[in-house]
Amino acid sequence: MNHAIQLMSQRPAMKYGTLFEIRPTGDMSEIIQQNEQRRRS
Questions:
Q1: Neighbour tally for 12: CB within 10 Å
Q2: Residue 23 pLDDT exceeds 90
């Protein structure tokens, strides 16, 4: 998480006060699988 904050702080938009929300990601495998099934149908 600290690494993500360091990377985002280097973005030019941060100088202008643009807000970003950084959240940890969960397990996306189930969502990806459901998405693939929808695309196949």
A1: 7
A2: no
